[in-house]
Write a structure and sequence with these properties.
The structure is a homotetramer of 351-residue chains. With 351 residues, the first copy, chain A, is an alpha/beta fold. Chain A is 33% helix and 18% strand. Chains A and D meet through β3 of A and β3 of D.
């Protein structure tokens, strides 16, 4: 950690900073230039919140040197994490990228879900997704079928063998999710719901952690760290778009460079959700392809059996025909990617 | 709601949109220009999520006309909401702006909290704040004293008569908060934690809802709507800075125009937290003054009894002396504001 | 154009808006809901700045329906624009994607430029880039070799047959650029330098227009419109990253979905510059691949003959070896893309 | 400057960085922690672009310690700059804040401009503004009356004694501006038009430099540096809103904390333009008041003689009555501000 002092600040302010850092068990090196003094704190800053220094008198700025996450970091764990599922599916490293697909919300008509599930299975995808508890911006929007939806998903799993993904929004629902669901999703709006992060951290179930739409990559990895330091290292990350000043053509901006960045600084798998990132159907195919060639370990898509007559969000999904059509081309692309070379050590260290 | 169709889209796509809207009980008016067709949907769109339309074939964009919040809106409730507290303190409307002050976290040493509380009381402020459960970006940072902190705060209230503010991060803690706390805070990171919003919505206790650092004003008011439509209309809003591309001199950008905007479109009180918005001590005074003249119903500040030796975030706070000094000038400014004219009907309707 | 009136605004305010629109030759349709009135203006809004309406009394918001650019729009010009160069190179449509490469700045040592040029040529690339006039954030940074650099580039063209790209920053330099340069670049910081846009608009030379780092896609296409409506339709667009709240791992966020969006709404070619977008060498390869599969008409990269001993920015470039290595893999990927299907009509109209 | 090396990078990469820095005349201090190595470069980094280091092999991040602007910095010039005008008006330091007002564009009807000018004069304001050359996002919008507008403004100056402000968009127009205009404005879109910055830097006329809508405060002060290092130190800065993700209620977000930040780090005067920042009439009064109490040296407002019948942007302006009404209240507020204490040394050094 680097503490930059204000130009011309007093010696007593500098001494206060040094004392403070030493009290927190840092080794301190002082570098004085002509105008400015910089205090270099060496040690395990992960156990210390640097922000607390920023308002000490005479401090101009605190600069983080070592990444504040540890378990999630590549340096602490150089080998790629592979998340393993019961049926042999593996996510991460140089494993074949996976496809997660299904309706935004599970709806009352079970047959529709099953139709989608069979199509997803037929295209060789590995996971069926479906919302049971919906975190909706407006309280007047459909809030989900709750446990009934989880039961439907579990039944679809029995029929198809697909692994099941669904979003949890309340720690109290953990027992339900543990019995029905294979991959528990933490949604973007709950990325910093620390109670929820701790709750899934105490489970053994794999967690799909979506990036908050204004979370920096560092905050994203710190959210993963919350889960991991509570004991659950089976975390799959998901980039799903960040807020920007331009909302005329898409809801968010898909930050695709997050994929190779996260692969460089973390060992965790990272997938991409182009449906939520862009909110536009015609962008799903090109952005899925782009995600896969940039090294993503999978993509996630919304598919609905009857988009025009859905009772909720279903319409923003692909129809089964569109999904089948796109997935054919994605499978062709996946087949062509040379996994051993997709992100070689050489690439990772190119800089 | 306005549905803009893609230029040259087919009639069947237009008919599908119309059918869809009629099925959701909208009255539909079709406006056709030379290039483009626009479908105007008239009716209560609050019970309908417009995003779901955006992926229907041939739809280019959906534009919201009526604000999606209702209970929080000025049109549904033209008179200012005044939140009343037991001891006669009132927040909102043309009431005297309030000051909320206290340490970031309540710490082990009770006397320190009490020293701050007496100073806050002496300056004529109305509320003592203090963190008990801390939502920290890093799992390795101090997570708060939990119930012990709430007990300390309640004891400080007994001594000083100050009202108590503290942040809740888990719905399961509601009983504890209801017994100790006067104003329950929902932090910025939990602004869209809908389980938590529903929980405080079922309480009678006033709620201090902080704006998420990437929440639009519309999303902010929809979060208030969640609380209100669950039965609790005692909501005080708090602007505390939004994320921007410039993080060299401040953590966030204080969006001060949110104050008059929210006063125009909502009847709820709105206060400002310049400490968290800027993260820099020297900005607290000018930004507090700016908040007050722009019409804020109060300001919130961090004060610590011994910033240099705090065990956690305390250092980013004002010292008691600095707080006293600034508050003297703020009180002078508050005394000068002509409340009846601060934001007159004329101003609200100037446009 | 849709003019949303404030809820409960007076009839005279509505009449003023109608009168105003009629004076500007719009046909007006009035839609009145229970709460709100919406004025729908039908006609050629491209000759009219909607912002001017936003402050009329009683107006809440003005929403654009028809895109404000015309010559740049797909609807006015459904067929892809192909920009043709003297030596037969074509950019746009379903032509083979191009690669532009070369040093950030042309430096004093001509042989270094020539070494890079030969490597660029050998890899089958089409364009050599090099800065002559540098727009630098700090006045103390190297400002470029000016005309001498253009002469060097022209000499490298003679030797290699590569087309030459360089950035113009002052309209007064147009004669120089017209004699030496094949593709005149407008940099991101000058995207809204309207004097410069008009100057290149009056030339016949193809223009490479980079997106401003905070320009919306609409503003980007309006900048292209400036050039086109002055007579020059040979415009190639370039996405090069936008500003975001996260600047820890990259300078900007590469907005890759801009590629398929622009291909949907405009007929102009669009390329991608991953070097400037990310500012990190290890991201160039994955982001170039992602750009190509998402449909970009080309990529642009910085290459330097001796990055470690460059007199200016050269260090942020790839070395010749790294460039050769990456370009081999890109060429392989380019060879695999099925151009006729890269962005089919079907995909464009999927929604 | 701090160069953070990648964890575990090789010694040769570290040596390359050291050699590089020494070649650029930095004194180098090496700090090695358990995981990471940090190279501290001490010396005059203002003559060196740190970005060039960011792509050296093994470099993770470069962190700026000393602000890259020098002439604009408070440390190089501790006393406030006061910009003096011929008629005795002074802008900056503890001088009475000024008001700049006038129409967005000067229009064909001279009498309208004169009516506004007399109202501006009568309210005790110091400057008349009016656009002559308009930088418009769309090429189809009104581009200004050009020299005729400057002549009108000069005539209004003769009648009223007001100082004249107008925006320049092309360096070639400097002679015209030098003969007619007292304060030459560089607009937000041209803040990094370095040719233009150099041109006004060679003049003796005061310059009003507006912040680019995505410029960091550092980039803003570097743009001022461009003007100053070319010889013109009479620079007045103007905050006018930055881009954000929320554009539903305002065009931009007014970054008001930029006022005290710039007063801390620079000696240059800083004013605020709430009209362009917010784009909404009802926000001008509260944001002007907020600007003044936060320490701004002035505010700038748009006023039009007949907003409802303006040929261009005039409608977004205040009417003369509204302007008079607001300015009365602003003058009362200005009268109350205790200038000697507005931003005392104590406040500047509070941290």
């Amino acid at each position: 950690m680097i503490v930059v002092m204000e130009p011309g600040t007093s010696d007593s302010n500098i001494q206060r900073v040094i004392k403070f850092l030493e009290r927190h068990n840092f080794r301190v090196v002082l570098n004085q230039g002509d105008y400015m003094t910089v205090v270099h704190a060496i040690g395990n800053k992960r156990l210390f919140n640097p922000m607390s220094l920023e308002s000490l008198e005479g401090v101009k700025e605190v600069k983080i040197i070592q990444e504040p996450y540890k378990l999630a970091s590549r340096e602490a764990h150089p080998k790629d994490t592979i998340v393993n599922f019961d049926n042999g599916v593996k996510v991460g490293g140089y494993e074949r990228p996976v496809v997660i697909a299904g309706p935004c919300s599970v709806e009352a008509e079970y047959q529709g879900l099953l139709d989608v599930a069979y199509a997803v299975k037929e295209m060789g995808c590995q996971f069926l997704r479906g919302g049971a508890f919906k975190p909706r911006t407006s309280p007047y929007d459909f809030q989900g079928l709750e446990e009934k939806a989880l039961i439907y998903l579990a039944r679809a799993k029995e029929k198809t063998g697909l692994l099941i993904v669904s979003e949890i929004i309340d720690a109290a629902d953990m027992p339900m999710f543990e019995s029905y669901i294979d991959l528990i999703q933490i949604g973007a709006r709950n990325m910093q719901n620390f109670s929820l992060l701790k709750a899934v951290g105490k489970s053994k179930k794999p967690v799909l952690l979506k990036r908050g739409c204004s979370a920096s990559i560092r905050e994203f990895l710190l959210a993963a760290e919350y889960i991991m330091c509570n004991g659950n290292e089976n975390v799959i990350l998901c980039e799903r778009g960040i807020k920007s000043f331009d909302q005329s053509y898409t809801r968010n901006v898909l930050d695709l460079s997050a994929v190779p960045i996260i692969k460089k600084y973390s060992h965790l798998p990272i997938i991409v959700d182009p449906s939520h990132a862009t909110g536009r159907r015609y962008l799903i195919e090109p952005m899925s392809k782009a995600a896969l060639v940039s090294g993503a370990h999978g993509v996630m898509m919304e598919v609905h059996h009857d988009p025009d007559n859905a009772s909720s969000d279903g319409e923003q999904s692909l129809s089964v025909e569109q999904f089948t059509d796109i997935t054919k081309r994605l499978n062709k692309l996946i087949g062509r990617i040379d996994y051993d070379n997709r992100m070689t050590k050489q690439e990772l260290n190119i800089k």
